[in-house]
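I had to read the description of the data format several times before I understood it. Each protein is reduced to its one-letter sequence and a matching series of backbone shape codes. The format is easy to grasp once an entry is in front of the reader. For illustration, here is how one protein appears when written out as sequence plus structure tokens:
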Amino acid sequence: MNGLRTVIVCLVITCAAIMAPPSASAAPPTPSWSALPVPAAAPPVTVSDLAARGPGEAWATGYEHAADGLRPMLYRWDGTAWSRDTSFPGADDLGRLGKVQFVGEEVWIFQIRAGAGQILRRSTNGWSAVALPRTLWTYQDFTAVPGAAWVVGEDDTGLKVLRYDGSGWTTQSTPDGVLFLMGITARTAADAWAWADTSTGTAVLRWDGTVWRDAKVPLPADSNVHTILLEPSGRITIGGSQYADGVSRTYLTAFNGHTWHTTHPPLGDTYTEGMVRGPDGALWLPTRSDRAFQSRYARVDGARATFSYGPERTGAIDVRPSALARAGSALLSFGTAEIYGSKPNLMSERLGG
């Protein structure tokens, strides 16, 4: 009888162990940021932009501050490692590289080469360049989509909005009162958005395929715009700063397809230009870190923000991610790290993947 009782007790314990929910220690680990080696440039360096097309291809742009002037800087991620690309036209000339975007199967990059602007295009046949129809004093921003590209800036006659349709350039006019375009982005050749400084304050403009108009976006009072994030679903998120009582705070104004809604996540005065939609559906952006030896990133979901840190870097006195990009199920970061006793050089980090 005692033996039978022992067998029954053992069976009960075994079944209980099988049926019990997994313990907290058995849960999958939370993804963390990891460092990705980047071949060093000639410091100090400035990072301009980062774009990814899936987990196996990303491009980062910027420039080195050389003794004789600025030098362009281009890096490629192949899914395993970063490498420097020096095969593009003007790689050895003075100048810089700006925004990078994927247009169909090509990579398009805005380049300033010996003071003149042009668009670099990389296809399966290699690199080519599209020259701008005129040289501008200031090249403020660039965007490209299949069938169209825009460059905005200024020359001695004032504001210039240049549009390329694949065969030639046209100069576009803007609504009365627009003084300067701070940035531009596009979803299609007939759906582009820009943020402007006007005689009455900051405004958002929209190109509908025919004309630029004021989009009548209800921005917060006394605010500016850092970036506009357009998504294929129709969702739009505008990030910027609002000034009140001498203090700046970050705001997000989002369009869900029907209405605009503004929130003020606890981000302080974070600059939102590097904001992206992550693979988890939340907004992610680099922020100023409170730890000299680690980068910091914000994850924003509605009005809530949570923060994560990159890996510790020995001897670092400033770790500064500049741009983020979604790369499949991961997030890629590209920026600079300053180690004590040296000038800022390149760093990259990855979350997930």
Remarks:
- Helices lie at 2-19.
- The longest strand covers residues 316-327.
